[in-house]
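The protein record quoted in full:

***
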Amino acid sequence: MDVPILHEDAHLLVVCKPGGMLSQADETGDQDLVAWAKAYLGRTARPDPYVGLVHRLDRPASGVMVLAKTPAAARELSRQFQERLPTKRYAALVGGEPPLLDTCEDYIAKVDRKVRIVAPSDPQGKRAALRYQRLATQGNRSLLDVTLLTGRPHQVRIQLATRGHPLLGDVRYGGSDAFDRRTIALHCYALEVEHPEAQRPVRHQAPLPETWPPFAHNALAPRLTLHS
């Protein structure tokens, strides 16, 4: 599986994870990003290079991911993600026509590997919040620009689906529109972190996959060129 490299230096490897690729290995034995990165770095570095996974994307989602190339970088980036300092922007193609602007706040629990929205009083519930702007609508599909305010498993997927706007292709949460058998219409198009060595904000972007419809590419393009 082709993995575009967005940036590389002595501390970071920033890539665009393809939809359908695991972030890290699981029981399936399918290809994962960490193993890919070790193989890639092993061509020019020592045989067993260090790769630190400091955040994740769901397997069927695509987009920007940053990997640490040193333990020190991994510690610093992990701290940033734990403290919710990075800015994460997602493009989401959903069914229907949501409001132009909205903020979603819920409590999410993961029980027996299943994610569900629960009452605030549920002891296993964790606050999940995001905000979005609708950029374009065509037919019965809308493109949203989503900013994550927290990072919970399947957060974007379940919060939008609960409001009647499931992601295209996300059959787990009610997405009935055929999109791609391996992927869902969720793409992290921009990620900003503080560089662990330079200590300055760095923003990395990835355009939408070619499989997304033209109206989505056209609507998101200004968001990408704005920060290029």
Notes: Helices lie at 33-42, 71-82, 155-162, 214-225.
